[in-house]
């Protein structure tokens, strides 16, 4: 099954980017409809998305993360999230802005954890030149295999669930907002502890009263 998917991806490899002479670009409205439509397979819809925005999103991730492997992984997950949550976006005119916001959220998840003693890693020359960096030759195959291969359904479900935090416009919430607990998360444990203390105190008083009555 996965070999057939790869063959389909490779057969269409001459229609890649907006800079290709043979590439017929879809409008954002058409791409928006294709991503939402049940008439397109996951492989086809994600392929259209990659052809329209894959190179730009890869450069965006490469600039944020500073290395090819992390950028490719972030791009793969961005495509997965876009396909899974396109229904959150109501306005097709915001598609490009939305995709870049998804990419930012995935880059934050794929960013290396800073060493608490050494601090964040310094920005490398490769990261600074990422805007002009050429994309890896197998980028399309790697991204679309992760986004559409039947064998990776479980992984895609995990990525889509992990990213399921959006604002009213359908844009992803920052990671800090996702993890910020609401007031109830502090209030309820405090109430539970307080009630427990009161119950323990009441039990002690009852026992003391019973003892006083016995000796009295």
TrEMBL record:
The chain crosses the membrane at residues 186-210. InterPro entries: RNA_pol_sigma_r2. SUPFAM superfamilies: Sigma2 domain of RNA polymerase sigma factors. GO terms for biological process: DNA-templated transcription initiation. The keyword Membrane applies. Gene3D superfamilies: 1.10.1740.10. The keyword Lyase does not apply. One of its GO terms (molecular function) is DNA-binding transcription factor activity. Keywords: Membrane, Transmembrane, Transmembrane helix. This is DNA-directed RNA polymerase specialized sigma24 family protein.
């Amino acid at each position: 099954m996965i070999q057939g998917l790869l063959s389909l991806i490779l057969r269409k490899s001459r229609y890649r980017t907006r800079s290709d002479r043979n590439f017929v670009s879809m409008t954002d409205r058409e791409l928006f409809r294709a991503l939402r439509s049940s008439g397109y397979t996951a492989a086809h819809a994600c392929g259209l998305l990659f052809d329209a925005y894959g190179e730009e999103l890869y450069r965006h991730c490469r600039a944020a993360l500073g290395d090819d492997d992390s950028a490719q992984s972030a791009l793969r997950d961005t495509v997965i999230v876009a396909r899974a949550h396109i229904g959150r976006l109501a306005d097709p005119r915001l598609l490009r802005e939305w995709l870049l916001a998804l990419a930012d959220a995935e880059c934050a998840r794929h960013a290396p954890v800073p060493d608490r003693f050494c601090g964040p890693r310094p920005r490398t020359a490769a990261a600074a030149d990422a805007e002009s960096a050429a994309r890896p030759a197998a980028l399309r195959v790697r991204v679309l295999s992760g986004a559409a291969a039947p064998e990776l359904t479980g992984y895609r479900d995990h990525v889509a669930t992990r990213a399921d935090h959006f604002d009213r416009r359908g844009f992803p919430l920052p990671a800090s907002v996702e993890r910020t607990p609401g007031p109830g998360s502090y209030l309820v444990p405090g109430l539970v502890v307080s009630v427990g203390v009161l119950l323990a105190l009441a039990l002690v008083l009852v026992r003391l009263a019973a003892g006083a009555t016995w000796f009295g």
